[in-house]
Write a structure and sequence with these properties.
309 residues, alpha/beta, TIM Barrel, Bacteriocin As-48, Chain A, 2 domains, eight-stranded parallel β-barrel, 9 strands, globular, binds flavin mononucleotide
Length: 309
């Protein structure tokens, strides 16, 4: 039974992965997508998104981070995957679910769900290019507008030789709105034999139990739920009670300090505000800090506020 932190561009960045994996309970991370176009991604660009590659492909807590690629050209994807595997990535994940219009216009992400044969070609080319001991996995949504091709896409991923598939149980049109259609995960399990990771709408330990029951999957990927409740994975593993706000606050401060050391100082308060905005739904105490950050944009003042709180 594994708990996997979902790739979330702009949300589960390297600093968030660091904090969440040190908090505990997460077995594996998938980094936010890296766009593959017509050239080899430079090491510099790659390390910006997945700096864990300079640490043996793991977070400081020792949790492996797979690199996710997004694109539509099988040859370019395969070449980049081989290159990245050579840099020590513990796994390569292929994105067949991104709904962003910009990405879709270039033929990547969820639009590929209309073309199972292209998905098959991409997976097969990538699997061939990457050494066998490094997993090549794929992440898909149920479809673009409907579920007409869901099973075909899952079959294409399996036939292409992927080692594992994660399914976000919604179509692109569903966006991120509840519900997630967990029953579809069980249907997919009937037609493919490769390990299936269940994903979508797991916010509490009870949701985790329910998604496993409905889908029959043992492994679960958690996205926004891990941002809103940073101890969610730990609680699932230990059965412990939820961490109170005073115990969580030093982790939030730690995240902010890491952010400040990495991003342009003026951007750090905004990123923190985003997290506090999400934390409010589990921790009403986060609201006061969130309100303050509406007007306070001085990074040093924000740090004092966090540490003195
Ligand atoms: C802000 C944001 C960014 C995301 N970025 C990615 C991404 O880079 N790659 C990907 O495969 N999925 C991405 N996703 C989708 C998540 O990995 C996950 O499938 C989705 O949030 C459903 O899980 P949840 O209901 O537990 O959040 C993103 C989701 C969000 C909310």
């Amino acid at each position: 039974m594994r708990l996997i932190l979902a790739p979330m561009e702009g949300l589960a960045d390297q600093d968030m992965r660091d904090v969440l994996t040190r908090l505990g309970g997460i077995d594996l991370c998938v980094a936010e997508f890296v766009r593959v176009t017509h050239h080899l991604i430079t090491e510099r660009v790659l390390l910006r998104t997945v700096p864990e590659l300079a640490n043996g492909g793991c977070t400081r807590a020792g949790v492996p981070v797979r690199v996710q690629l997004l694109g539509s050209d099988p040859v370019c994807l395969a070449e980049n995957a081989a290159h990245i595997a050579g840099l020590g990535a513990p796994g390569i994940d292929l994105n067949f679910g991104c709904p962003a219009p910009m990405v879709n216009r270039h033929g990547g992400g969820a639009v590929l769900l209309q073309f199972p044969e292209i998905i098959h070609t991409i997976v097969a080319a990538t699997r061939r290019a990457v050494p066998q001991h490094i997993p090549v996995t794929a992440k898909m949504r149920l479809g673009l507008k409907d579920t007409a091709l869901t099973l075909d896409c899952a079959r294409a991923i399996e036939a292409g030789g992927a080692d594992e598939i994660t399914v976000h149980a919604r179509t692109k049109v569903d966006g991120y709105r509840p519900p997630a259609h967990w029953e579809w995960l069980a249907r997919i399990r009937e037609v493919v034999k490769l390990p299936l990771v269940a994903n979508g709408e797991v916010w509490t330990p009870q949701d985790w139990e329910n998604i496993r029951k409905v889908s029959g999957c043992s492994d679960v990927m958690i996205g926004r739920g891990a941002i809103v409740r940073p101890d969610l994975a730990l609680r699932i593993k230990t059965g412990d009670a939820a961490m109170p706000w005073p115990a969580l606050l030093p982790w939030v401060a730690d995240y902010y300090q890491r952010l400040r050391a990495r991003v342009e100082p003026k951007h750090a308060p905004g990123r923190l505000k985003q997290w506090l905005g999400m934390l409010r739904s589990a921790y009403p105490e986060a609201d006061a800090l969130h309100q303050t950050l509406r007007t306070e944009r001085d990074p040093v003042a924000v740090e004092k506020l966090l540490l003195g709180h």
